[in-house]
Predict the structure.
Amino acid sequence: MACWTSSRGSCGRASSSPEPVNLPTEFARIGRHFRPLAGPGALDLADDAAVFAPPLGRELVIAADAMVEGVHFLPDDPPDLIGRKLLRTNLSDLAAMGALPLGYLMTVSTPKATPETWFAGFAAGLASDQAEFGIILLGGDTTSTPGPISLSLTILGTVSPGCALRRNGAREGDGVWVTGTIGDGALGLLAATGRLADASGFLAGRYRLPQPRLGLTLHGVARAVMDVSDGLVQDLGHICRASGLGAVIHAGDVPLSGAARMADRLDLCLTGGDDYELLMAVPPDREDALRDAARTAGVGITRIGTFLAGDADVTVLDRDGVAMDFAVGGWSHFA
Amino acid sequence: MACWTSSRGSCGRASSSPEPVNLPTEFARIGRHFRPLAGPGALDLADDAAVFAPPLGRELVIAADAMVEGVHFLPDDPPDLIGRKLLRTNLSDLAAMGALPLGYLMTVSTPKATPETWFAGFAAGLASDQAEFGIILLGGDTTSTPGPISLSLTILGTVSPGCALRRNGAREGDGVWVTGTIGDGALGLLAATGRLADASGFLAGRYRLPQPRLGLTLHGVARAVMDVSDGLVQDLGHICRASGLGAVIHAGDVPLSGAARMADRLDLCLTGGDDYELLMAVPPDREDALRDAARTAGVGITRIGTFLAGDADVTVLDRDGVAMDFAVGGWSHFA
């Protein structure tokens, strides 16, 4: 196949005579919408692969995420926001590793009836975020699908050797910190599907357009970092397991947006996911450094709890100091 | 999200109360089937991304391809062969660039009802080919989908600087060469779907399990290379356009397997695709070097035509020297 030529697949042929395949349309689409996104090394999306010299003296950081229509985005979401969300959820992985964005590859599987305007909007959203985050398209693949739109993106970034931020470095006594506000994404899905009032559109906007927290200098500040995508409590459990610790957080300290406070759905905010905020373990003597980094990056940060010795249990205390019980999410059952 | 933790998505929730999400099952599946495939740098698939130091003094080659159930493989294809085909179509891109395999990331979107045995078979196929081709899993993502199984794989390889094999280097007078035999993949799809007799299973096997032509030392031998995935005539047109040339090939010289000769479907062999053989431009004075390289690699090679000055036209002559006309494939209409 190729550094972005369309692979037409073959099972779709209904008879023993191959059907005419409208490859010219496919190639024209690639040329019109995706080639303008390609950067150096992409070989104009016209070869079998991209070729690039990795930056000298840097390690590469690489992650891949898929997004499926009806699972990770709504069928009527604007295509530019779908493209940007696809890129941003992956940029959030780079942010969680302390990496700088370098480039990305993408596969796009769409039903045959997907209109040209969808591709135009999708590519326009990517172009906008490429400019904002300083990243280029390196390659990919376009295919048809009889199912929902299925997108997959692989992102590459770089870090100084040994400086990647891991999940396994938290220590007893470190504070549990988060960026931004928690719960807007989960509430935003309810809002976007008409199940929650959201007059300003703030919550739906947070669901449709995450803000990757790049730009925070966390090396030497945070001992463990990850991004919150599966829900705060669930993801805190990941750091705890990786670090061999437990944690206690105070629900009343978890930063909520005004809209989230209005919605009064604390359970969903704590377990809902789609936040793409950073969750960090920061020792007390580095809190000033964290505040400096946050101020420089223009990102809000909040301490919500403490890592404890123990068995990867995450305890959430309500305002009365009583442990909250989450029936949903399944996190507490994960061995 | 993560270097392979499951992203559960959120649109799937049917009510305003989030449904319990069976994350333990997902994580157990990742641990059971995919973690054993992970190599150095993958951080045990437990962080937000993989981290690795690129090999010193090498360029990186990277490509991504998607495969969708019902488009690129059949719903009842054995899962181990689906995994191997996914990896091999991408390995074929590395072969076409003259690159050595390094690692891969993968996203796997499956319906909720996909049985555990499917994942076990899929991973077993990958494990087998990882050992055969010397490549490791670096990361990925698992999601659910309401549609067909959708797979995406990003492959990384390395080449010596400046040695990547491109499509744009062919010159007038170079021979058009191919590896192996052409048309088995397209015929194999007919066979696998009961539309062509295939008593030995050879053709269906070629469709389900491509053989990436790694191991041929083509730098300094071939001036242009690509892999044949969209059909010989179509893909030869790609090299012609990239190189600013035309080409003539002789249908009678195109190497066919015994089974393909029996099938007597030359049109489909020349336009059908799914070959994953290499298509090369080789100057006459390097033909001995090509033969040496092929002998060393144990790969058959055949000269089927010549690159000509001209306008990216591909002419296919039949045994009587008459230009053949292909109604299907659309290649001749591509500007």
